[in-house]
Design a protein that fits this description.
The complex is a heterotrimer of chains A (146), B (402) and C (197). In chain B, 39% of the residues lie in helices and 14% in strands. Chain B is α+β, with helices and mostly antiparallel strands. The radius of gyration of chain B is 30 Å and the shape is globular. Chain B starts with 9 loop residues before the first helix and ends in a 15-residue tail after the last helix. Chain C has a seven-stranded mixed sheet. Classes of the chains: A alpha+beta (146), B alpha+beta (402), C alpha/beta (197). Chains in contact: A-B, A-C, B-C. The A-C interface holds A 38-40, 42, 72, 77 and C 2, 4, 6-7, 11, 79-80.
């Protein structure tokens, strides 16, 4: 199991959810506090690395697109880092990260945004596991002679 | 020699582009392809474009395929060009393929292994017969499901590792030295494995497939076994300096292949199995297997093996593997070479005349024996040919004197 | 600690215009070039130097900061450029200097190699407003990009010019320098030579 802090967990869920799903859940929060960009949503690259043999020497595999954003919201700083090129995705992730650090907001955002998004991710993953499991080979030993 | 530069064709080029766009769109009565259709229904093409375009972004790869009219090498080129416009913001932590959520996992060296053989979505056991039902639209399919609560499986090769029967892959990366990056450094031989693996991960699938096949046919003998092939999603993790902790930014699909080769040992190394490694973006098994075989072949020097085949020659493999470079150099031959060719044309005409002169002389020499002709004026004739080398009007009359 | 200072007001246009100005400054040594980008520089850097840092530094550059530079500068650079910091002058792609009296010898910076002479340190020197005028001691420069001669428009110590002569002699290796004062930039590339007057 992964060891991660609560904040790492919600940042991961925000990054791995689709912008459409996040937008829908964020709308349930009603009016959000004002916020400003400390770093406007910005698209760039991350160089992905692998290891020879999975465990050995590190090498550069290729790049992927990433969008990042930093907002200042209610005196906290919220960060968004998401794969892909959706500026809105990075912005919403940063806003939620900022709100989740606020006592008065964290409970609502956890319940109305993070939990539902986590459920969607988990369901998709479980379905994929079940589909893969259905292709698992069962070997039969053929008796010969006698 | 002076020449006159010509320009022109501007209108022709504009119209050619417009024609391409119209032909690419095809009959307007047929609905236009959406990027989402390409992403989902031509996913393996998208995967190949991402792998060789060296940029993981399904939307961009789908767009590139649509724009390139289905020409995947052109799409790869478009993706490579696009990535140069973006700043690099982070380096990821090395992908942990052991924690992969597998969608397919097979091993051809152990029948029973922890986690089992999971075929996933594969063409491997299906007859290669055209399915005419697909020609009709509104096909619906259903994937069966069986309960399972764990998506990760341990590595198949670890059992060999525990017995010390296989060369181990341990992290030898020097923390002071970043892994080689051929998008930033120019490649020079001899290379280390990090440079080779990066090159092979971006390399043309067809080129690697041919090389891998050549090793199997005996050009650089090494008999590989598919130790493990796994396809699935791995987590991408970065550690932004401003945060001081790791964050996951996405799950991406990759294919990983561990090839196992018997090795009879050398003065320094005991008999054991050795490995070749393949890792690519997306579901890209043929490419990943070829990569692993070529990776192993290129380790010949490391294992003290004789270089017998072209797949073991790092200079040959690494400098010819990139299809963007290769297609550029091959296709540049379509550009106007009018002046180059004019020079060669004149040269060939001159050589031809000289040869004719020589053979005429030989003929004369032979004739001399019989008929003793007057002293030849050969020398002056040759210099005359030289003087007229770039003229075209001289073809007929140079030999008039002979 | 995360900086609360923003970067360029207009990231694309400000960095492009600043890059153009830096290119002009190095192409025309000794000329005074005005940075037009707007930003709030962190304490310890003047506007021109801050703009040059945002324009030139990124994830793939190693930066040496002269010791005792305000801590907020490092946080600000890290946040906005993602650059790497090094303590070794001979590994730095860029060096940010705020006090010329205490700066290392020019020869201690990365000099480039015969194959890659461009792989040398570029110095970004904040000279402050006081030195920012020529006086009768100011030397004349000659070299590539200079029509005959030009007066170096800032006052620099003699010890600097002695080191500069060595740097000039090691061409094609050697370092290049930008001097910044308020919103102005003056370039001094390795091809510029102080004339004997």
């Amino acid at each position: 199991m992964k060891h991660q802090t609560e904040r790492q967990a919600w940042m991961e869920i925000l990054a791995k959810s689709s912008v459409v799903n996040i937008e829908r859940q964020v709308q349930t929060l009603g009016k959000l506090p004002e916020y400003s960009f400390l770093r406007s949503p910005e698209i760039g690259l991350t160089m992905l690395r692998g290891r020879a043999g999975g465990t050995g020497e590190v090498f550069n595999l290729g790049e992927m697109t990433i969008t990042r954003c930093v907002v200042k919201i209610l005196d906290t700083i919220g960060f968004g880092y998401v794969g892909g090129r959706s500026k809105r995705h990075a912005e919403l992730a940063a806003v939620c990260d900022g709100l989740l650090q606020q006592n008065e907001w964290s409970f609502t955002v956890q319940n109305q945004v993070i939990q539902p998004l986590q459920t969607i991710i988990q369901q998709k993953q479980e379905q994929q596991q079940r589909q893969t499991e259905a292709t698992k080979v069962e070997f039969f030993t053929m008796l010969r002679g006698e | 020699m002076a020449y006159v530069a010509v320009k022109g064709g501007e209108q022709a080029i504009k119209n050619a582009e417009a024609l391409l766009q119209a032909m690419r769109r095809g009959n307007k009565d047929i609905p236009e392809l959406s990027l989402e259709q390409i992403k989902q229904q031509l996913a393996l093409a998208v995967n190949r474009v991402m792998a060789e375009g060296s940029l993981y972004d399904c939307d961009l790869a789908a767009l590139a395929i649509k724009q390139s009219w289905g020409d995947l090498v052109e799409a790869i080129f478009l993706l490579r060009a696009y990535r140069t416009t973006l700043p690099r913001l982070y380096y990821s932590k090395p992908l942990d393929t052991e924690k992969m959520q597998v969608q397919r996992r097979i091993s051809s060296i152990f029948k029973d292994l922890p986690g089992g053989q999971k075929l996933g979505a594969t063409y491997d056991y299906i007859h290669r017969l055209l399915d005419f039902k697909l020609a009709a639209e509104n096909n619906e399919y259903h994937a069966p499901e069986i309960d399972n609560n764990n998506g990760t499986v341990p590595r198949a090769i670890d059992t060999l590792n525990q017995e010390g029967l296989i060369q181990s892959e341990t992290d030898i990366t020097d923390t002071d030295n970043e892994p080689f990056d051929l998008t930033r450094q120019s490649l020079s031989t001899p290379t280390d494995r990090d440079a080779r693996l990066q090159n092979l991960a971006r390399a043309d699938e067809g080129f690697l497939l041919g090389l891998a096949y050549s090793t199997q046919r005996g050009y650089g003998k090494n008999h590989p076994f598919a130790g493990e092939i796994r396809v699935g999603e791995v987590e991408v993790i970065i550690e932004p300096e401003e945060l001081d902790f790791e964050v996951a930014i996405a799950d991406i699909q990759v294919t990983e292949v561990q090839m196992v080769n018997q090795f009879k040992g050398s003065k320094e190394l005991p008999p054991q199995f050795t490995r070749g490694y393949g890792l690519t973006f997306g579901y890209n098994e043929r490419k990943a297997m070829s990569m692993a075989i070529v990776d192993r072949a290129l380790r010949a020097k490391e294992f003290g093996e004789e270089i017998e085949g072209v797949a073991q020659d790092e200079e040959f493999v690494l400098y010819h593997s990139d299809n963007v470079e290769a297609q550029g150099f091959v296709q540049h031959l379509k550009l106007p070479h009018y002046i180059d060719f004019q020079a060669e044309l004149n040269l060939v005409r001159q050589m031809k005349k000289e040869q004719k002169l020589d053979s005429d002389n030989e003929y004369k020499v032979i004739k001399n024996i019989k008929i003793r002709p007057e002293e030849s004026k050969d020398y002056s004739e040759i210099s005359e040919v030289n003087n007229l080398a770039f003229g075209q009007e001289n073809e007929a009359n140079v030999f008039n004197d002979v | 600690m995360i900086t609360t200072f923003p970067g360029f007001n207009n990231l694309v246009h400000d960095s492009q215009s600043t890059f153009r100005i830096l290119l002009d400054a190095l192409s025309r040594p000794g000329t005074i070039n005005q940075v037009t980008a707007q930003l709030t520089a962190p304490s310890g850097l003047n506007l021109a130097c801050a703009a040059a840092c945002l324009t030139l530094l990124d994830l793939e550059t190693q930066v040496w900061l002269q010791p005792e530079l305000d801590r907020s500068v490092q946080n600000w650079l890290l946040f906005h450029t993602g650059c790497r910091f090094t303590k070794e002058t001979n590994k730095a792609d860029f060096a940010v200097i705020w006090n010329m009296d205490r700066m290392p010898n020019l020869s201690e910076f990365k000099q480039g190699t015969p194959v890659y002479p461009e792989d040398s340190t570029t110095l970004l020197i904040d000279v402050g407003a006081d030195n920012a005028r020529a006086n009768n001691r100011s030397p004349l420069l000659k070299g590539a990009g200079i029509n005959e001669e030009i007066t170096m428009p800032i006052d620099l110590p003699d010890s600097f010019w002695q080191q500069w002569q060595q740097n000039y002699n090691s061409y094609p290796l050697g370092i290049d320098i930008y001097f910044f004062t308020e919103n102005k930039v003056i370039g001094l590339p390795r091809t510029s030579c102080k004339t004997n007057q």
